[in-house]
Amino acid sequence: MHRRTRATAWLARSAAAAAWATCAWTAQAQTNTMGAEPANLKQVFEAAWARQPEALALQARRDAARAQQQAARSWTPEPAALELSNKTDRLNRNQGARELEVGIAVPIWLPGERSRSAALADAEGTALESRASAARLRLAATVRDAWWQWFRARIETDSARDQLDNTRRIAADVSKRTRAGDLARADQHQADGAVAAAESSLAQATASLAAAQQQLRFIAGSSPAVGSDSGLAEPDPGGEPAEVEGHAAVQALKDRASVAERTAALTSAQSRANPELTLATTRERGVFGEISQQTITLGVRIPFGGGPRHDARTAKARAEATEVQAELALERERLAAEREAARVRVEAARTQLASAERRAQLARESRGFFDRSFRLGETDLPTRLRIEAEAAEAERQAARTRIELAAAISAWRQALGLLPQ
């Protein structure tokens, strides 16, 4: 009885220790996960790419491409086949007739098929990498758009919060002066109305910020660290080369065109099915008692031409090659126009930022002047509220213009085919 009690207690202690260890491990894992929040645009992009189906399947596709290259360089287009046959008269006459045949059938490359198959396999391997680079660049556009939308929402929220703080401060001052009899109750109502409007603006900005943050979380798998503004703007690509040939989208189309051209070349060489070389040995006897005879057979199987089926495959491959070439020409023109538009947008954003910062500085100075005059009773409340609204709008516009300049530089880098930094 005592042994059973001790065993039960030991099991209970073991279960408790295991549960404690599990809880500790779970807490540590949650802490590590929470600490892995992306802090800048590059980290958000890398986290988003790790979740993409293209990234998850990329290694398997590389393995398939390498296997295809090895198959294209093999000695035969298809694996050899073993042929077995046995003929006997046991079920009808049963006179001892028997024939056993064992052979091997080896497919043979058509003229030019092996070299063109190898060229196509190499082109497909190269196209796989360029397709992955183009997919990364397309994802970069999505991440950049969500990232700067999130920053715009943050700017709107901060501006709305500052405006609410300022209107509350004015409303508190108006309340004191109303109780002292210096201002009328209508002024108090007007100040309270300004506070209510600022609260409504803050609520709307907070909702927009939450939506932008959730969109970014959906893309990257986790929300970025809110307090980290390091590396707000990406490097200015002013010194980058202007050629479009190195762009990932252009390179992907060029590799796709190469695959289409080599597919057409291979299809033209595959005018028929692959011939087969057969080597077989036969062992046979006529009746019981006879000595078995052995023979060797060497044969070649040559299929007829494909005819209309081959013509259809060749025409389809050539049409694909022509279509990709046309897409490549249009993509070059589109990227050239997009790069120029992005460059002009950056220049315009710089000019707007200088004007917005000048306006914000003047608005801050005017707010200080009118705040002192309002406290001295030299300015009425409507004028003070108007000046406050203008100053808040100037500050918001300056902050938003800084974000727009950073977003314009990011869009310029996107047009140049550069990934987030």
Q: Your description of this structure?
A:
- By secondary structure, the protein is α+β, with helices and mostly antiparallel strands.
- Helices cover 69% and strands 9% of the residues.
- It has helices at 2-34, 41-50, 53-72, 113-179, 185-220, 248-269, 308-375, 381-415; strands spanning 81-88, 98-107, 276-285, 293-301.
- It has a 4-stranded antiparallel beta sheet with strand order 1-2-3-4, with no helix packed on it.
- The longest helix has 68 residues, at 308-375.
- The radius of gyration is 39 Å and the shape is elongated.
- The two termini are 70 Å apart.
- The model is unreliable at 1-35 (pLDDT under 50).
- List segments where confidence is low: pLDDT < 50 over at least 5 consecutive residues: 1-35
Estimated helix fraction: 55-70%
Alpha-beta content class: alpha+beta
The main sheet comes to: 4 strands, antiparallel
Assess the beta-strand content as a share of residues: 5-15%
